[in-house]
Amino acid sequence: QVPLVESGGGLVQAGGSLRLSCAASGSIVSSNVMAWYREAPGNKREKVAAITVGGSTTYVASVKGRFLISRDNAKNTVYLQMSSLKPEDTAVYYCNAPLDLSSTLVLYAWGQGTQVTVSS
């Protein structure tokens, strides 16, 4: 069973919005720090947003004020609401559980991700 399944990506014009979902197995969401990552062609995978078990959030500077991460423990799902999208947000987006907020290590196998393409 794949522990993390991302969905919600698509093609959107610059300035538009998308909401990504990450459906997790078992109690992954309620038990861990959860984060969204993205990987654009030619770039390293970067963490763009994270949320702690207590609900505290952090964002990379490039998405602060435009993206919002949230979690629904009852549904074992993490969301990423993306607004004011820019072409540079184009990437494959993944979710996972980092070892802690500052760690580059993750606890689970990567899912297939969901493609977000922002046209100018």
What does this entry look like structurally?
The protein has 120 residues and is mainly beta. The chain is built from one helix and ten strands. The protein has one helix at residues 28-31, and strands at 4-7, 10-13, 18-24, 34-39, 46-51, 57-59, 67-72, 77-82, 91-96, 114-119. The strands form two sheets. A six-stranded mixed β-sheet has the order 2-10-9-4-5-6, with no helix packed on it. The chain has a four-stranded antiparallel β-sheet with strand order 1-3-8-7. A hairpin with a 5-residue loop joins β5 (46-51) and β6 (57-59). The termini are far apart.
Low-confidence sequence ranges: none
What class would the helix/strand composition place it in?
A: mainly beta
Oligomer: single chain
Proportion of strand residues? over 45%
Q: Rg to the nearest angstrom? A: 13 Å
Helical fraction equals under 10%
Structure summary, number of beta strands: 10
Mean pLDDT: 95
H and E string: EEEHEEEEEEE
The major beta sheet can be summarized as: 6 strands, mixed
User: Outline, from the CA principal axes?
Assistant: globular
Adjacency order of strands in the biggest sheet = 2-10-9-4-5-6
Count of alpha and pi helical runs: 1
Calculate the terminal CA-CA distance, rounded to whole Å.
38 Å
